[in-house]
């Protein structure tokens, strides 16, 4: 009997918060990979992930910094990926959101586990190299998770008026980026939204040309020789699929440290392609956290996947036989690892 198929989704920044403190200890304590990651950080004088994860209290000034958040999130997600029961699921593709692309590279085998961690760790530092600016989240979806096209058109027009760029298309949300004064002007000029704009603390203008310094640092530090052909299809931030036999490793390196950093990341397109091209029985969202679950649900609603046309429809489906399995969500994690 064929195993259920699954597309794995790797989370990005903003998923390791106070509730996730201790995630590595709870789920992966004693894992030899965790010891390897700590050893890699010790070689360059960085604090161990086990110490950061085992802190007595979550400290936003520490845990939300790029050079701390990125390796913590990558380690949680990558070790979650290794914990998925392979005798239970046939993993047919891997994708990710924003920084989750680096984790997806390692999960798919396009880079080794050590190099995947080194990339995430380095990019946590490099992500702090950029022109002045930040990100703001604009929620377009209403309580039913549907988006009014007229509202989206009005928001995009306001963005154009104030030179604010699209950073991430995230289901029923837009993550936008720009200079601080541009974001402030946009937020004052927006039409009424379902929720007020949320400025993301500690985030730069990711996925825009303002990240040129970050891309330059990545290209000089992270060798093309680390990249190979993925063993599992990879879906990138454009919705393009990298298949093993067709992949040219230098092109994958070039995308990762070029377009992926400097142009908008379309997570909506990535999930849409995952659904339409692979028609999986499940999506498995790696931990930490589960904040990406709402964005994935909104994509399902927009595409009317499995006849889901509203938030209530998504909740009903999840209650019967979860299509989306969140490894950071108690009660669902067990379905992925047992």
SSE topology:
Layout: E1 5-10, H1 23-28, H2 32-43, H3 49-53, H4 60-63, H5 66-83, E2 90-96, H6 100-107, H7 113-126, E3 134-139, H8 149-161, E4 165-170, E5 173-178, H9 180-189, E6 198-199, H10 212-221, E7 234-235, E8 241-242, H11 249-256, H12 259-262, E9 265-266, H13 267-278, E10 282-285, H14 292-303, H15 311-321, E11 324-326, H16 333-337
Parallel strand pairs: 1-2, 1-10, 2-7, 4-9, 10-11
Antiparallel strand pairs: 3-5, 3-6, 4-5, 7-8
Describe this structure in words.
With 338 residues, the chain is of the alpha/beta class. It is built from 16 helices and 11 strands. The chain has helices at 23-28, 32-43, 49-53, 60-63, 66-83, 100-107, 113-126, 149-161, 180-189, 212-221, 249-256, 259-262, 267-278, 292-303, 311-321, 333-337, and strands at 5-10, 90-96, 134-139, 165-170, 173-178, 198-199, 234-235, 241-242, 265-266, 282-285, 324-326. The strands form 2 sheets. It has a 6-stranded mixed beta sheet with strand order 8-7-2-1-10-11, sandwiched between helices. Helix 2 (32-43) crosses helix 7, helix 5 (66-83) runs parallel beside helix 6 (100-107) and helix 6 runs antiparallel to helix 7. It is globular and about 50 Å long. The model has no long low-confidence stretch (mean pLDDT 95).
